[in-house]
Design a protein that fits this description.
Elements: H1 11-18, H2 22-41, H3 51-64, H4 68-75, H5 79-96, H6 104-108, H7 134-143
Length: 145
């Protein structure tokens, strides 16, 4: 399967750009195509963007935290269209149940040892000259002549 806009990318480059492997991308496309076929069967309005393009928009949104306005501009659609397409992809992938993240218990059972570093970022007072000090007033008076 050749992915639009990603021709000639190696598997590693594709993963770095989108955040998923090509095989996972293909599985996501399959789930979305089945959902789109069911939507068309019910009489829904088809999107002018391909499923691959809409999925790339979604992955770009997740990966780069770009606004809908910027994503829409990149793909030649309005901000609201970008929002609708990304929401459709998200909702479809979530309801499919094929793609899930591990829960909190998986982290607890993990064999990895996590190291926690705490940084004290409390405010510290800064020594500044007092507003009514003689040096400040003298400088102001001499600068006005």
């Amino acid at each position: 399967m050749e992915i639009q806009g990603c021709a000639g990318m190696t598997g590693e480059t594709f993963r770095r750009v989108t955040g998923v492997r090509k095989r996972t991308f293909a599985e996501m496309v399959t789930v979305l195509e089945v959902a789109e076929a069911a939507l068309k069967k019910q009489g829904g309005k088809p999107s002018r963007l391909t499923v691959e393009t809409r999925l790339r928009m979604t992955l770009e949104y997740w990966r780069e935290y770009r606004t809908y306005l910027h994503i829409g501009h990149s793909y030649g659609v309005s901000e609201s269209t970008a929002y609708r397409n990304i929401r459709w992809c998200e909702d479809t992938l979530i309801t499919s149940g094929v793609f899930t993240l591990p829960g909190k218990k998986a982290l607890v059972r993990s064999d990895r040892a996590y190291e926690v570093v705490l940084i004290d970022a409390t405010e510290t007072p800064v020594e500044r000259p007092q507003k009514n000090s003689a040096a400040t007033i003298r400088a102001r008076k001499s600068a006005t002549r």
